[in-house]
Amino acid sequence: MKLSSIRKIGIAGASTLVLGLLFYALFPNMLNRQIGARVSLEKGKLRRFIWDKPPFFLTAKFYVFNVTNPDAVMKGAKPALREIGPFAYDMVHENTNQLDNETDDTITFDQRHTYFFNSAKSEGLTGEEELVVPNIFVLSSMNFVLRIMPNAISILSKAVDSIFGNPESLFVRVKARDLLFDGLAINCNATDFAGSTVCREVQASYKDFNMAKVGDTEYLFSIWGSENGSDSSDRMRVARGVRRIEDVGKVVGLNGRANMSVWGVSQCDKIEGTDGSIFHPFFDEDGAEPLDVFVPSMCRSLRYRFHSKTQFYGLDALRYTTDVGVDGEHVREHKCFCEDPFKCMRKGVLDMFKCLKVPIIASNPHFHLADPYYLDSVSGLEPKEDKHAMYVDIDPLTGTPVVFSAKVQFNMMLARQDKFRLTSNVTDTLLPLFWLEEGFETPDFLMEDLIMAHRVLSLATSFKYLTIIFGFVLSVGSMYLYLTTSTGGSDLVSKKEVRSANSNPPSGGNKKSPITMSTLQQPRT
Q1: Each residue's pLDDT tens digit, 406-433
Q2: I want to staple 41 with a disulfide (CB 3.0 to 4.6 A). Which of 149, 240, 286, 440 is the partner?
Q3: Rounded to 5 degrees, what angle do the CA atoms 490, 491, 492 make?
Q4: CA 363, CA 370: separation in Å to the nearest integer?
């Protein structure tokens, strides 16, 4: 091979190798910029459009606990429960009333959820099913009074008799649709002292009781109707991630404050994590990094921890799980979530009274991960991790949640009170009312974009290494050819010179005669 051709191969190899090394050095910054542009909440970007109002329905599934032995419970028996559900609803999520602040790279906004019944996902249920449940308005009123002015519990008992016509039982038969959204009718027109006192309080604060006013003294009570189509009472502020992609979605304020003032201790009032709809890119692929999600409706941040690796649409994902409950008895950092730090509830529940001003106690569905005491207090529950655990599946490259399932159970204390007629014979029990699952799976048309991003990354990574390998092979190969050709040419020239010297003796005066016996015998002069 000619030396000129070898030199060309060498130059091509060295150039390719340099190009590969440069691409290797610059690739991380290029990737950061490209992913940052895709993930940040900058106005006009695709991710911002999806964050504003996801172009697909989320799903909300309600599971109500039907009490099958109400008469026995009134006499002190353990409540026997039968789960009825799911009552499924398509949920439209919107971040409304947005205000961008370019100075600190944040967005301030409200949230709005609108629900539409989905019969196909309800597995044959229509919402017309009749259920036996406690009168939640009465039970919550009793627990509320016991917390703020227990001496007035006998007055409340008389007010309940006046407003509801001396009911024989704490339990009522209702349609699922009315309990969840449409509302149960309450006519608060009592004229006696006790009844009128409660009705005046209802008239002044009916929205706080999850009630809608439909007449001068008529109201509709439901457990979720007030959430339907209305803006949230909490206004959040999150980082857009335009300047620092690591901060994208991070909640930095609530109602104009950097921290809450709910629990009375900075550790529990601290706001940490994102709003749950977005996370920063480039997660540790082994799940070493925990996730924090701030939940304003619970007045706290939930810490998700790595559970396992999974797949969605063929893409590797990281599954993280969390626990709604706390353990104030054994974990010092959880004591501030207790109503009384010196008298915490058992592990696995969260008293929401300080947060919501409503005597609701939250837990995982079916008391999953909670102290067995709660499960033993009722019958009919069967906690299962695969059904009742809260989890999120994260794409580690972009930080996109591809699957999300938030689950929480709402419970209320059923407490024996001698001065409250309807509970004078019951056994103290944390009574499950219902549990809710909200979540989504990223639809096909958005997954196609995410899959394409992974393909581009894979091609770029392959190009990076192939360029380096190809350039190295060309460089080493050209060097070998050059050395081989150069050495071979020198040896050939040397051999030709030797043969030429032997076949062509010197001429002229320098010619020497051959040595013979006669020449050796000639005398020297």
Answers
A1: 999 999 999 999 999 999 999 999 999 9
A2: 240
A3: 90
A4: 8
Give the distance from CA 121 to its chain's centroid: 23
CB count within 10 Å of CB 156 equals 22
pLDDT digits (tens, 9 = 90+) for 222-265: 999 999 999 998 999 999 999 999 999 999 999 999 999 999 89
Taking the CB of residue 102, how many other CB atoms lie within 10 A of it?
Answer: 9
Q: How does pLDDT run across 11-39, given as a tens digit for each residue?
A: 665 666 565 565 555 545 555 566 666 78
Helix (H), strand (E) at residue 432: strand 429-441
- Residue 124 region by backbone torsions, left for phi larger than 0, else alpha for psi between -120 and 50, else beta: left
Query: What is the Cα–Cα distance from 496 to 472, expressed in whole angstroms?
Result: 37
Contacts of residue 349, Cβ cutoff 8 Å, sequence gap at least 6: 325, 326, 361, 362, 363, 367, 370, 374, 411, 430
Measured distance CA(282)–CA(429) in Å, rounded: 46
Q: Reduced to 3 states, what is the DSSP secondary structure of residue 305?
A: strand
Please report, for the chain, how many H helices and E strands are present, in that order. Answer: 13, 18
CA distances from 351 to 53, 243, 366, 496 (A): 32, 38, 16, 102
Which pTM was predicted?
Answer: 0.84
Burial of residue 519 (number of CB atoms within 10 Å: 0-12, 13-18, 19+): exposed
474: its two tokens: 């060309």
CA angle 104, 108, 109 (to 5 degrees): 165
377 phi and psi angles, rounded to 5 deg: -80, -15
Half-sphere exposure (CA, 13 Å, Cβ side) for 183?
18
Rg (CA), the chain: 39
Q: Which residue type sits at 481? A: L
Please answer whether residues 280 and 245 qualify as being in contact, where contact means their C-beta atoms are separated by less than 8 angstroms.
yes
Q: How far apart are the C-alpha atoms of 370 and 151, rounded to whole Å?
A: 32
Q: Which residue has the tokens 């909490």?
A: 234
Q: Where are the domains of the chain?
A: 1-55+456-495, 57-135+170-183+222-442
List the structure tokens of 492. Answer: 């050939």
| HEC assignment per residue over 73-138 | HHCCCCCEEEEEEEEEEEEEEEEEEEEEECCCCEEEEEEEEEEEECCHHHCCCCCCCEEEEECHHH
